[in-house]
Each structure stands twice: as structure tokens, then as C-alpha cells.
Amino acid sequence: MAVNLLLIFSFLFLQIFSAVAQNNGNITIGASLSAAENSSSWLSPSGDFAFGFHPIGNNNELFLLSIWYDKIPSKTVVWFANRDKPAPRGSRVELTSASGLVLQSPQGDELWNSESIRGTVAFAVMSNTGNFELFDSNSDKAWESFRNPADTMLPSQTLESGELLSSKLSDTNFSKGRFRMLMRPEGNLVLNTINLPTDNTNDPYYDTGTTTASNSSGERVVFNESAYFYILLSNDQRYYLTNRSINPSTKNFYYRATINFDGVFTLYQHPKNSSNEGWTAVWSIPDNICKASFTGVGSGTCGFNSFCRLNPGDKRPICDCPKGYFLSDPNNEYGDCKPNYTQSCADDEEGSPADFYGFEEVINTDWPTSDYALLQPFTEEQCRESCLQDCMCAVAIFRSGDMCWKKKLPLSNGRFDNTLDGKALIKIRKGNPPPRGTPALPRPDKENQKNKDNLMIVGSVLLGGSVFFNFMLITSVCLCFFLVYKKEHRQIPHHGDAVEKNLRCFTYKELEEATDGFKEELGKGAFGIVYKGFIQMSSVTPVAVKKLITLVQDGEKEFKTEVNVIGQTHHKNLVRLLGFCDDGVHRLLVYEFLSNGTLASFLFGDSKPGWNQRTQIALGIARGLLYLHEECSTQIIHCDIKPQNILLDDYYTARISDFGLAKLLMLDQSHTHTAIRGTKGYVAAEWFRNLPITVKVDVFSFGVLLLEIICCRRNVNMEVSDAEALLTDWAYDCYLEERLDALVEFDMEALNDKKKVEKFVMVAIWCIQEDPSLRPTMRKVTQMLEGVAEVPIPPCPCPYTMTN
To answer: What's the predicted TM-score (pTM) here?
Structure first.
């Protein structure tokens, strides 16, 4: 009896000892776990985290080697190892001294192991922070899950230089997805997409710009114990990502930060000791993934031919297929969509395209990188007809009252945005499309039968009606046939010689009400003050209203003439004029409102824009100036090119504003000549030497602006050394001394494209030549920037003696 009691006591002691050992989180060499439902796991001492096999799918046949929150019902996975090789039931993970963790299939094939082990493993710990750690005999770390993250970070975890988080493919598919978060070696934290199945990356859709923040680069991302996110800079200062007003509480909540499968990096919280299944999002980047993940290559946030709209509740994207399209993979709602017909330009259908195709209207939706034609000015009816007759056209976007953008498949970067002020006309097949290869019905017989039927109906009516009624009916039928015939044979009119003037004339009272008494000031400059307002067009539209400085009292005719000249300009790199006010002494201009603000704010803000994006902005400005100088109906000299007069649209396309105002406000030269001399630092020498003002003054200003775009610094900076204070002089010195790395402040993205940096600097030096005759035209500038024309070695932009 005593022996039996001793055995029972010993068994209970071992059970208690085993439980205590597990609660310590320590795992000894030789310990193992097997993949099965309800299999055992290795717990952290607090019991918050568990390491083991997590089932995926509904049949419990495949498992991930994972770490999860064990005390919440959802058992949320925060780390996983074998994402691309799920472990079949019966697989086994073992802690070994030589290789650390080794995962093997039931057949003994190795599926995964903890690589880069330092030394020999003595034991492992599942810690209370959620970090699974391997230690050697000296208790030094040999490996840890925090240094090999999956898609999630936990409080007390860091992301070191070169480390990254990689999203899942979908909410339930743990394979590598398209989105990732990377701490770049040069110090920036970026979010970008990759082109699966490769790791080829696209430009970042989020960038902290901490390469040069506070004159110090970022070293690591820190998710501290208090659940705040910041970048630790090399001077030990902190660049906070999360808002300090969030005030998280790790005492009452669990936290995790995850790069979601849809590209949004989100900080979540879950109350401790709660039966609630869900997590609450408390912070995320970017603010609008649908707009931010615009990329020149790839589909964008959603798949090809799909479009993205933002869920306002959690800032997560929702992807939709347009009507007439369906998912290529029904199990992936964020994937590609394909049309319900095969788009082809083969001449295999007789009859009018209108017999086979129609349009589905979707407001405020666009695929901005799929354009192949811009028709302007065009009416909506002309836009529909043009797309209908064009076998390549899949969608037409009608915007701003007279702009028709034609797009072809595949459609990319699709998004819904209620600020777009336009509609998408999506071409769809009427009815059920016939299978490919099905012969079309012979049209003549069909038409003959239709005509016979129509004649029988008309004849019956004629025989049964009065003489007067028959006369009226015959007249109506003839008129209808004439109109139908005319419609079938009319051509879309060409508007190359007659520009439609769609400017709207406002009263001063209308604009006063639209701006709420000129309440919200957007900016001011040499030409006047700009206010934000809202006017009713096809919908309530935000606008920028500019109150011009005082004009001459008798300049009404000239004012309207010049406003019409401005109104006739149409170019993707110009801000569009919507209307004007010529009411008594009041002269105001109404422009489209561009939500991304000025280039000045973009260049000189806290975060440094990417090099590729900056080069595209520079090219856009050059093309806009080329249009003003040479391609619009009346030559326009801007006279005040500077970053404050360059605005950025939803896609960060550069749009020149205030063009035409210099001439408009110089109708009386004696009255305004001294007022319109551009802005300090951007002004060409001609202004001060009584020489004729030509397009070359804009070329000079563009050269200064181009240097600012290259360097992301203002042209005059008195906070640096005297040698660097004036950007134009310093840039030329850096060019001569081959110190371009200093000029771009060691921007690695730019330095990886050093030939283009040098080319852009050389073009800028040509533009800022004091002698106007040495400056190139904007056409030549554009060709040199695009690489179409060679850039010769520029001379020193030194002062010279000018004569009258």
C-alpha cells in the first residue's frame, strides 16, 4: 500500500514539476512537438504566448510552426516559420544542439530549420515578450524569432537595418504576399510592393524620409514596451511614427503591429482577459492605401482590372470588379478581374459596335496608369462614341467637363475617390457574349426582316387611320428615318481649330459664399491671395479661388481677353482654370483644387521624397513650360516659376499654377512692372537690366527649381556655411569637384542612379546661365532630361557684362 502511495505521489510530483518547467518557458535539447489538432505547445511563463503547430484550413491536415496569443479566443498568430511549406499532419519539430529548431515531415524530409545559428544550442525559451529564443551554454543568444520576423512586430521588438516584414498572400493564406515593410540600410522605413513570384520591388508607397531627418539617419525601428512606434536615429533622437496622443496601455491590452495582406501596416489592441474575438485598429499607415500604393509597374493595391475603395472604419481597402468583370480566382477577392468577353481588334463581327457593346457608368473611379489617349475638348457623348468605335478602348474616363481619357487592358492602380469629379464609362458586352469562333448571324437578312416587319406595321397603321393622321404619321416617319440616317453616318467632329470656352463666369457674391467669406486661406504670392471654396458643378466640387491684386480700372476688355487665353490651355501639367469673376472692381480666378498641396511643402517637409518621384515631377514641370512657351495657341511666359507655384494632384503629378497672370497683371506696364519681378533667388538678370523679358526668364527659374528638386533644399539657406548658402553656386562647385554625393546628401536611391543625377545637374547649370542666349529652350531642356538629346558640358554660370 505504501509503495502504491509512493508511486502515486511520485507521479503527481513529476506532473507538477513538468508544469512548472513549462511555465518557466524553458525547453531542453531533444524536446519535440508533433503536428495534430489539439497538440501540445510550449508556453511562455505568463501563458500569454504559445509556440507550436497552428492548423490552417478547415480540415486540420496542414499546420504552421507558429507563435500565437494563447489567452484570447482567436489564438492570433504573430510569427510563423514554414509559410511556403505547410507541415502535413504528423510532422515534427525538435530542438537540437547543432541546428536549433528542425522541422521534418512525417517522411523525415526537412521542411525548415532555424538558420544562422551562432554556436551550439543548449536550451530554448518561449519568453513573455513573444520572442522564441535559443541560447548556448554561456546563455548567449544563438537565434531568436524577433530577428526573423514574419508579418508582425510585438512590443519590445525592433526592426534592424535590412530586416523586413512580409505580408500574407490573403487573410487565410500564409504564403508570401505582395506587400512588405523594410528598414533600409540608409535609414528609411518604407512600405512597398513586390512583383510575385520574384522579390523585385516597386517604388515605396510609404517612406519615413529618415535618411536625413534631424541631420541624422534612422538606425532601427523600435516598438517599445509601452506600444509606441518610433525610429531611433543615429544621434539617439526619436522619430515617432505613432501619434503620442494614442496613449496605449500594455497593462490592460495586448498589442501587435502587422503588415496586412492588403498593404496597410496597422497597430492593433485586444483587451486582456476578454472573450472578444476581434482586435481593434488604433493606428495605421498609410492614411489611404488606395491612393498611396500608386505604382508605375504592377496592379496597385488591388489586382488588375479591379478598383480599390477605402473602408472608412479601419482604413483598409476593399477591392471590387467593375460590372461586366469577374474574379480570375474566385477565392481571392483582392486579385485580378477579367472581362466577360475577349477583347479583340479582329474584324469578326459585322454591324455596328453599338449592337454588341454598351457602357456601365461608375462615378469617381479611375485607373490612372492605363491611359493611351486624351481627347480634349470632348463632350461626354463624343467620349462614349470614340471609345465604342475603338476596339482597343476598354474604359473611357470623362472628367472636368471636357476631358476624355481612353484606357486599355489591363487596367491598373484602380481606385474610387470622391474627389476625382468624373465618371468611368466601362465598355461591357451586351447580353451573354457568344463563345469564341461562333459565326455571326448574316446581317443583311436580319436587317431585311427587320425592315419588312417595320413596313408591315407602318402599312397597317396607314390603312386604318384618317387622312390627316396619315399625313402627320408619314411626315414623322420620314423625319425619324432622316435623323437615324444622319446619326449612323455622322463623324465625330474635330475640334482642333475651335477651342470650346467652358469658363464659368461667377459673381463676387457667389464666390464670397463659396469660400465662406474668404475664410480659409491656402496661400499668397505676387499675384494675389488664394482661398479654398466649394462650388456646385456636376457635384459639390472643391476649388481654389484667387483674389488678384488691384488691376487698372479700364482693363475689363483686356482682362477677359487674357482670361480666355488662360482658359484655352489644356495640358496634364497645368492647373485647370474653371471660371472667373469680373464684377465691378473685383477680379478673381477659380481653379481646380489639388489636395496634395505645393511642391514646396513636398520637397522641404519632414520626409524626403523618393528620387524617381522627384525626377518625374521635374519632367512634368518641364513639359508644362514647353507647352506654355511653344505649343499653346498664344505663347505664355510665366515669370514666377518656383516650388510654391507648382501643385501636386492626386497622383503627385506636377501641375503649374499662376501661368498667364504676369501678362494679365502687366496690362499697364508703368503700374505693375516693379511688382512682377518673380521671387528672390529664382529671378533672371534681365529683370534688373531693362532687357526684353522672354521665355528665357522661365528657363532660368526652372534651372533653380530643378536644383531644389535634386537636392531637396531651398535655393537660399542662411543656416549653412557661406559656401553652401546659395544653392546655384554650391551645385556648380559640387559638379566641378565631382561631389554629387554631397549635393544629394548621400541619398542612396539617387546615388544608385548617379548618371541621371549628373545629367539633371548639368541641365540645371545650362538653365541658370546669366546670358539668356546660352540658356536652352524648354524643348531642348525636356529632350535632355528625357535622354533624347545629349547634354554638353555646361560653362560656369558666372555674371557677365550685359548691354542694352
So the answer is: 0.53
